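Renewal narrative, Specific Aim 1. Our central claim is that a sequence can be written position by position from structural information alone. The example that follows is taken directly from our test logs and has not been curated for this report. It begins with the C-alpha cells describing the chain, in the order in which they were read.
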C-alpha cells in the first residue's frame, strides 16, 4: 500500500519511527513533514492527497491525535479516526472504512503506536459487511 504520514513538530520522533516501521512492513511511505507548527496545514495537505486517492491510507500524529483528526475531517473524502488502542485501530478500517488514522505522541507509547498501525494496515473494509449501510449514509450526507 501507499501510505502518507505527517505530524506536527512535537511528534517528529514518533513519526520518523512509525514511517520506518511502515516501510519495514513492506509499504511505500511518503512523509508530509513535521516542521509546520500549524498542524492543520499538514493534516489538510495529507487528507487532500488521501481523498484524491494518491495514497491508499494516511497516518497523522500530533500531541493527542485530536487536532489533526479535526483538521483532516474537514476535507471532503477524508475519514480520519483517532485511535488509542489496537481494537480501535482495527475497527477504524473494518467498521468505519477510515482512510486516515490519527494518534497522539504525548499519550501513546511507541510500541503501542506500532501495534495500532500494524492492526490498521492489516485489515480491509468489506463492502458487504453489516457496517456498509452505515458508512454509505456518511457518504450520502457528504454528497449533499
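The sequence written for that structure reads:
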Amino acid at each position: 500500500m501507499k501510505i502518507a504520514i505527517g505530524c506536527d513538530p512535537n511528534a517528529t520522533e514518533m513519526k520518523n519511527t512509525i514511517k520506518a516501521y511502515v516501510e519495514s512492513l513492506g509499504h511505500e511511505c511518503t512523509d508530509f513533514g513535521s516542521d509546520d507548527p500549524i498542524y492543520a496545514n499538514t493534516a489538510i495537505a495529507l487528507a487532500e492527497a488521501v481523498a484524491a486517492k494518491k495514497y491508499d491510507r494516511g497516518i497523522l500524529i500530533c500531541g493527542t491525535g485530536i487536532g489533526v483528526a479535526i483538521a483532516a475531517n474537514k476535507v471532503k473524502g477524508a475519514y480520519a479516526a483517532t485511535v488509542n488502542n489496537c481494537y480501535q485501530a482495527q475497527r477504524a478500517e473494518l467498521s468505519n472504512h477510515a482512510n486516515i488514522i490519527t494518534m497522539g505522541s504525548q499519550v501513546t507509547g511507541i510500541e503501542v503506536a506500532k501495534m495500532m498501525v500494524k492492526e490498521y494496515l492489516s485489515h480491509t473494509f468489506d463492502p458487504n459487511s453489516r457496517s456498509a449501510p452505515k458508512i454509505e449514509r456518511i457518504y450520502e450526507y457528504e454528497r449533499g
